[in-house]
Design brief:
- It is built from 11 helices and no strands.
- By secondary structure, it is mostly helical.
- The chain has one domain.
- Helix 1 runs antiparallel to helix 10.
- It starts with 6 loop residues before the first helix and ends with a helix.
């Protein structure tokens, strides 16, 4: 079972043009499905096997029909026709896989995670929004690192993830088509710069998202 998307992602999706919203929703639910592997897996080896299944299943979508799995069916229906290949989506697995390694996360591990998950997620989302701007990747990395800090039960790991997110600003002013992504990146950068995680869904954060939607900053 894939958990509901967090409220801030849901709000950002509401500002995506309706014709593109199914593809972006499918992309975020794929990310949530990969996150759920780690959230529900107790044994790292089992989590690695399950992540590998997702990677292989996504790669197969380029030449096979999807299996009876709702997230993969949505990917095949809504994302692939927009020109994104399953093999590209499979690249997100590498970011999550690094979190299954034993021991504390190193700075290199955090970079690998940020690139594999966040940069890839935002780059593909930008393509689906019709504006493939490579500058979005830093915002995606920042968002992924702050999200990792939220998920972590280890205070030292959370602090390291926040520190790694600091300074990954990417765009000074986000173009209108990409502002649904910028809304999320801006909140992540605010948390990183503050060095503390603010509760999601607070009125201040909603106002900050809406201000970014209007100004791109």
């Amino acid at each position: 079972m894939i958990p509901d998307l967090d409220p801030e992602v849901q709000l950002s999706l509401a500002y995506i043009p309706a014709p593109r919203r199914p593809a972006l929703g499918a992309l975020w639910r794929l990310d949530a499905a990969l996150a759920a592997v780690l959230a529900t897996g107790r044994e790292p080896m089992i989590s690695r096997i399950r992540l590998a299944w997702w990677r292989e299943s996504l790669e197969k979508l380029d030449h096979e029909r999807p299996p009876g799995e709702p997230v993969l069916e949505a990917v095949a229906r809504d994302i692939l026709p927009a020109g994104v290949r399953g093999a590209e989506l499979a690249g997100m697995e590498a970011g999550w896989a690094v979190l299954t390694e034993p021991g504390a996360l190193s700075a290199q591990d955090l970079d690998t995670y940020a690139r594999g998950r966040g940069a890839q997620l935002f780059a593909l989302a930008a393509r689906l929004l019709g504006l493939a701007d490579p500058a979005v990747v830093e915002g995606g990395e920042a968002w992924a690192l702050v999200d990792l800090a939220r998920r972590s039960s280890n205070p030292e790991e959370a602090a390291a993830a926040l520190a790694a997110a600091r300074g990954r600003s990417g765009l000074d002013r986000w173009p209108v088509p990409l502002r649904p992504l910028g809304m999320l990146a801006r909140l992540a950068l605010d948390d990183a710069e503050r060095g503390a995680l603010e509760a999601q869904g607070s009125p201040r954060r909603v106002i900050r998202m809406l201000r970014h939607r209007l100004t791109g900053r």
